[in-house]
Amino acid sequence: MKKFATLKTAISLPLAVLAAAFMIFINETSFQQSTKAVSNMEQAQQTRSAITRLVRQVLDAETGQRGYLLTGDPRYLEPYRSAVGDITENLNLLRQIFVSQPALSGDFDTLSRHVSRKMAEMDLSVRMRKEGNDDGWKFVLTTDVGKEEMEAIRIQSDKLSASSIQQMEQGQAQIRKALQLSRIGIATTALVGLLAFYMYLMQNKALIASGQREQESLERERDLLEKQVRERTASLAELATHLQNVREEERGHLARELHDELGALLTAAKLDVARIKSRLAGNLPEASERLEHLTSTLNTGIALKRRIVEDLRPSSLSHLGLVASLEILAREFEERSGLSITTDLETVELGGSAQLTVYRLVQESLTNIAKYANATQVEISVHNFDNFITVDVKDNGKGFKLESIGPGSHGLAGMRHRVEAAGGKLTVASAEGRGTQVGAVLPKSQ
Question: What's the pLDDT score for residue 2?
């Protein structure tokens, strides 16, 4: 299909260019022919008008000559002289016109000779009338010389006028031919243009169809990739949740082992030290002192074991509930870190996994504050609503730019995943010099 569209493109463009060139050629040819025909027609019309004026001027001269001869009134000589001057001027104009028409120059020369003879005949009669030679001018007037010359002038002028009319008709025919050529050219160009436009439409249709197929293919590939991404994301989320659950289970198992095994060993050792100490009584002061130190060391170990066990799996969650566990966590962390921690905790009803999620969120937030925030005060709040609870941990530390959180921020990423796995949403608000607030919204159904 692409090759077919390319072939149409290769044909339609040259076809359109050829049609445009053909149209330009036809228009230019028609213009040249029409211009030449109009020029010939103008020249023919000018020739015909000049010949008509020449005959009229000869008649005017003859009328003035006859009036003067019959009346002797010199006033008739004025139109006669005016007509003679016009005849001379008109003959010069016609001579210039027929210079470019060799085929008609012979007929014009004949006309010019007859006009000259007619003018000579009239001039002779007028001169005799002026000289008082009445017999002479009357004789000339009664002869047929003037009549024959006038008839010859009419014949030659009609012949030249007919030639001019023929030239005008030829010019009109040439104009009609040029117009017909233009019509043919325009019709041909229109047909070629329509063909090129049709090919363009077909090409455009093919390109649109090809584009739609490519778009559909891209959409299918995109949908497939999105499906794969969703499946991979869901798989990774399930894996992360599984790893988190496994980690919590391992923590619980380790906490139980430490509580049951190590706790029992430390307690037994403490009891043995107490029995040894009671039997020695005050007999060996130095041994009693060492036993007292051992007892203190065992007490420290038992406290350390208890703290580690609580960090791994807070037993207070199952025995005392979420609020008491958070109070204990805040108090112990305040003692270890030196931070001033205030709490605003409302009693909430959550399942064991959701309680653990809240506890880990607060615990991880306190750890991050101690490591990075340089804070002096921390506020922990838990509020109960109809269908959800909110948890907020706020400090007055140095804060940070949210866009600076990179992929390596596993603490926040772990908290976000834990909250989202519980069906909630985690928010982090911070600005440089304004502290940080970590908040979560968790549904009660979880």
Answer: 47
